[in-house]
TrEMBL record:
Pfam families per UniProt: PhzC-PhzF
InterPro entries in UniProt: Phenazine_PhzF-like
Name of the protein: PhzF family phenazine biosynthesis protein
Length: 214
């Protein structure tokens, strides 16, 4: 079996929750894209990262069913693990930094496939949602405290690949930040925390806590 690390990305304030991420540090052991896709499907994480050049930060990202040019939480996790100043993805170069307990990336919201951003009247409504049938990628959200920029969210990929709900979804958080034009403090899933901030030129900064699970 190929060696890989498991991280939890966007952990809560006490280190719990977060979205599990698989990282194959030596991507050269699986150079073929079809084999990478098969491993990502076997591992079953929302995303799996293959590191093709750890010094330059070149990464390749897969869900259980498809390859992604960019994704938020895999880039945050890989940036924390590799501790490099940038990551190179098929979509573009992602800036990275570690600031205390948070790891940050800076990227463009349009690099990820569009999500359906669906606003609800209250956090309670978001909490009570059932998983929708496969179809569009839905990011359900509501203000918890609009003045403070605090949001309650849940992510439903709608892919039909066994991932009914994403615990933490960086790309969707970036797209919501771009739409609202302000910094956000998002609680997603069971208790994950994502921080975002707009930057000049329509770039978005995305940050969170990362821990090595195994």
């Amino acid at each position: 079996m190929t060696d890989y690390d498991v991280l939890r990305v966007f952990c809560g304030p006490r280190g719990g929750y977060g979205n599990e991420l698989g990282v194959v540090r030596d991507g050269s052991v699986i150079p073929d894209g079809r084999d990478r896709q098969a491993l990502a499907a076997k591992l079953g994480f929302s995303e799996t990262v293959f590191v093709d050049d750890p010094e330059r930060g070149v990464v390749d990202i897969y869900t259980p069913s498809t390859r992604l040019p960019f994704a938020g939480y895999p880039c945050v996790g890989a940036a924390w693990l590799l501790d490099v100043p940038e990551l190179v993805t098929p979509a573009g170069v992602v800036g990275t930094r570690i600031d205390g307990e948070f790891c940050w990336i800076e990227a463009r919201p349009e690099w990820a496939p569009p999500r359906t951003l669906r606003q609800y009247a209250s956090a309670a409504e978001v909490d009570d949602l059932e998983v929708p049938p496969p179809g569009e990628w839905i990011y359900a959200w509501a203000w918890e405290d609009e003045a403070a920029g605090r949001i309650r969210a849940r992510g439903f990929p709608g892919r039909g690949d066994g991932i009914d709900e994403d615990e933490a979804t960086g790309a969707a958080a970036m797209q919501l930040t771009h739409r609202l034009g302000r910094a956000l403090n998002i609680t997603q899933g069971a208790g994950s925390q994502l921080l975002t901030a707009p930057q000049p030129g329509d770039w978005i900064e995305l940050g969170g806590r990362v821990v090595l699970e195994r």
